[in-house]
Amino acid sequence: MKIYRKKTEEELRDFGFGTKVVSRNQRLMHPDGSSNVRKKGLNFFEKIQFYHSLTNMSWTKFNLLVVGSYILMNLFFAGLYELIGVQNLAGVTGTTPVEKFEDAFFFSAQTLTTLGYGRINPTGNLASTIASVESMVGLLGFALATGLLYGRFSRPRARLVFSQNAVVAPYQGINGWMFRFASKSHSELLDAEVTVVLTMVVSEDGKEIRKFFPLELERNKITMLSMSWTIVHPIDEKSPLKDLSFGELKSRDAEFLIFFKAFDDTFADTVHTRTSYRYDQVVYGAKFVTIIGKGNDGSPQLDFSGINDFEKADLNYDAEKLTA
User: Fold this and answer.
1) Does residue 303 share a domain with residue 170?
2) How many other CB atoms sit within 10 Å of the CB of residue 301?
3) In a domain, 26, yes or no
4) How many structural domains is the chain composed of?
5) Which residues, at least 6 apart from 66, have a Cβ–Cβ distance to it below 8 Å?
6) CB neighbours of residue 202 within 10 Å
7) CB 158 within 8 A of CB 273
8) Burial class, 167, CB count within 10 angstroms (exposed 0-12 / middle 13-18 / buried 19+)
């Protein structure tokens, strides 16, 4: 009978990234929350994930893709009509090759969108067959584009703005590691919760491995995120950051992984987002400048333009050692 060894607490804390050190100076997680893992050994169709790509690409790329696909499809079918001869399209008034192609192109646009103004119409079985296929392609294509458009609009997202840097600032007689963020969404984010994990490369038995250390936070959950939220990890005796200098964070390839989740009351669904801070994004001896002020009507006002602003602050113990 095989005996299964109970896993240690550290083994249960790899957070899905594994403990093997593949390379140095590489992020585990990009600032946008995507993992820095490349996948190999998949065939062509397994590599292509249309829905994921089309729902996650930027709006600029998505709009350009839709418009470009529309133009290319019409150029393709206009070329087919040219190939069989535009004399198979009744109502073509163009006399030059360019004018005839323009007529074929705009007839294709009418067929693809099922508008059919009626000035030009196909004659003969071949032209009618091409027009029938094109109308079917148009119906399916626009149904797909509509579904993707709805999916992009209806997908709940945690629209958060994170500070570009984390700071080590004085905190209640000791120091604290901090970063801050705020929500751009007009929706209320309820039961917001944050988890911060420090990952570092350490040497054990002459072998480098990656370890993960969940950081205890001053507060990891709030009822409603309506203002900015500064996350604080007190650097006390229990903290893995205790007495760690910037140079040591660099030598250990340190990275702080941030996981956020909350309930969006507009979409009535849980939203998630992630980001990370590398060791070179941590500023020692600094504190954030407040971005909360008073509006013209006296109500609290949040100034997103200053979310990255910080100022110098004296640490509560040997700053020279920490910044070395």
Assistant:
1) yes
2) 13
3) no
4) 2
5) 145
6) 12
7) yes
8) buried
Q: Are 163 and 288 in contact (CB under 8 A)?
A: yes
Residues 172 and 273 in one domain: yes
Q: Are residues 178 and 309 in the same domain?
A: yes
Tell me the C-alpha distance between 304 and 307, whole Å. Answer: 5
pLDDT tens string, the chain, 324 residues long: the values are 444 444 444 444 556 666 666 566 667 777 776 666 666 667 766 667 788 788 888 889 999 999 999 999 999 999 999 999 888 898 888 889 999 999 999 999 999 988 888 888 899 899 999 999 999 999 999 999 999 888 888 888 888 999 999 999 999 889 999 999 999 888 889 999 999 999 988 887 778 888 889 999 999 999 998 888 999 999 988 899 988 888 888 888 899 999 999 999 888 889 999 999 999 999 999 999 998 888 788 788 888 889 999 999 888 876 556 666
- For residues 252 and 208, the answer to whether their CB atoms sit within 8 Å is no
Domain span holding position 141:
45-154
